[in-house]
Amino acid sequence: MNVSKYEQRILHALAQGGMIRHHRNETGHIAEVECLTRDGWRLTDCTLDLFGRLKRRRLIASRGGAPYRITRLGLEAVRAQLDNR
User: Fold this and answer.
1) The domain containing residue 17 runs over which residues?
2) Inside any domain, residue 82
3) pTM
4) Is 35 helix (H, G, I), strand (E, B) or coil?
5) Does residue 14 lie in a domain region?
6) Which residues pair with 35 in a beta bridge?
């Protein structure tokens, strides 16, 4: 699957235990998203457009109104990266 550099960065953070919180407007549509790592850091690369692409390709999903997490398909699409901790 063809995944861009920014999508790859977000998917990698989600694969390590991160999440994408979403905020809805008055009409019920998602108006704002923020990507958080498992340590609580916020990733600024996660935009509403990027979120839409990941959701449309079913690489992320939400269950029961919970924050969005990576799916099995997303785990298969992410390439392994070195974790410099």
Assistant:
1) 5-77
2) no
3) 0.88
4) strand
5) yes
6) 20, 43
70: closest CA among 84, 85, 51, 83?
51
Cα–Cα distance measured from residue 39 to residue 59, given in angstroms and rounded to the nearest whole number: 22
d(CA 39, CA 57): 26
Per-residue pLDDT of 43-74, as tens digits, reads 998 999 999 999 999 999 999 989 999 999 99
Domain count, the chain: 1
Structure token digits, residue 52? 């839409």
32, 78 in Cβ contact below 8 A?
no
Q: Is residue 84 part of a domain?
A: no
Query: Looking up tokens 């549509």, which residue turns up?
Result: 29
Q: How distant is the alpha carbon of residue 53 from its chain centre?
A: 10
Q: Above 90 in pLDDT, residue 2? A: no
